[in-house]
């Protein structure tokens, strides 16, 4: 067929078909192979955040360990408070793994580690305090016993946040 006799609609149709074929081939090349899910990326690597439409540069964020809420002095309480209402409204029981903290949300959970012996305990924040000295947390008698601080009274601790509430 003589190219001079082709109509412009035939040329447009040909260009469209060629463009469609090229885009299809490019799309297949870009999506071949399944991408790794964030759950399968080891902690020492970085996770790629989702891209917004039109953004061609992935944002890489390093995976970081949660920082401790605080490090400082801890004490324990129980005698004289058992049976009384805590700031959360529940009745204090020195046999449960609970603690008082000035600012952490009531109902949140933390891990408290005794820095002198490495023992740790998970506690629920159910009260406000401590109000003595430079202490950062007051533990129930059960929690204090679990980390070996009953005889010491006041010790150095590290407080780490937990994702769930401790029962």
Quick tags:
single chain; Barwin-like endoglucanases; alpha+beta; 8 strands; 167 residues; two-stranded antiparallel sheet; 18% helix
Structure explained in plain terms:
The protein is of the alpha+beta class. It has a domain at 70-161: Barwin-like endoglucanases (Beta Barrel), CATH 2.40.40. 18% of the residues lie in helices and 26% in strands. The chain has 2 helices and 8 strands, in the order αβββββββαβ. The strands form 2 sheets. A 6-stranded mixed β-barrel has the order 3-7-4-6-5-8. The chain has a two-stranded antiparallel sheet with strand order 1-2. β5 (109-114) and β6 (120-127) form a beta hairpin. The longest helix has 24 residues, at 8-31.
Tell me briefly what this model is.
With 167 residues, the protein is of the alpha+beta class.
What distance lies between the first and last C-alpha atoms, to the nearest angstrom? 84 Å
Radius of gyration: 31 Å
Shape: globular
Return the string of H and E elements: HEEEEEEEHE
Proper CATH architecture of the domain at 70-161: Beta Barrel
Mean model confidence by pLDDT = 75
- The percentage helix is 10-25%
- CATH H-level homologous superfamily name of the domain at 70-161: RlpA-like domain
Number of strands: 8
Report low-confidence residues grouped into runs of 5 or more: 28-52
For this structure, the CATH topology of the domain at 70-161 is Barwin-like endoglucanases
Assign the structural class, choosing from mainly alpha, mainly beta, alpha/beta, alpha+beta, or little secondary structure.
Answer: alpha+beta
Helix count, DSSP H or I runs of 4 or more residues: 2
Describe the biggest sheet? 6 strands, mixed, barrel
Under CATH at level 1, the class of the domain at 70-161 stands as Mainly Beta
Task: Report the sheet-strand fraction.
Answer: 25-35%
Strand arrangement, major sheet: 3-7-4-6-5-8
């Amino acid at each position: 067929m003589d190219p001079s006799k082709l109509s412009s609609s035939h040329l447009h149709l040909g260009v469209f078909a060629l463009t469609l074929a090229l885009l299809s081939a490019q799309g297949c090349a870009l999506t071949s192979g399944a991408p790794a899910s964030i759950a399968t990326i080891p902690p020492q690597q970085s996770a790629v955040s989702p891209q917004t439409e039109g953004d061609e540069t992935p944002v890489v964020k390093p995976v970081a360990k949660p920082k401790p809420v605080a490090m400082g002095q801890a004490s324990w309480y129980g005698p004289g408070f058992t049976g009384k209402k805590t700031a959360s409204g529940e009745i204090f029981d020195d046999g449960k793994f609970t603690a008082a903290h000035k600012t952490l949300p009531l109902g949140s959970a933390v891990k408290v580690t005794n820095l002198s012996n490495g023992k740790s305990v998970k506690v629920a924040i159910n009260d406000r305090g401590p109000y003595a000295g430079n202490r950062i947390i007051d533990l129930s008698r059960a929690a204090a016993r679990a980390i070996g601080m009953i005889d010491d009274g006041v010790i150095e601790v590290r407080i780490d946040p937990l994702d769930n509430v401790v029962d």
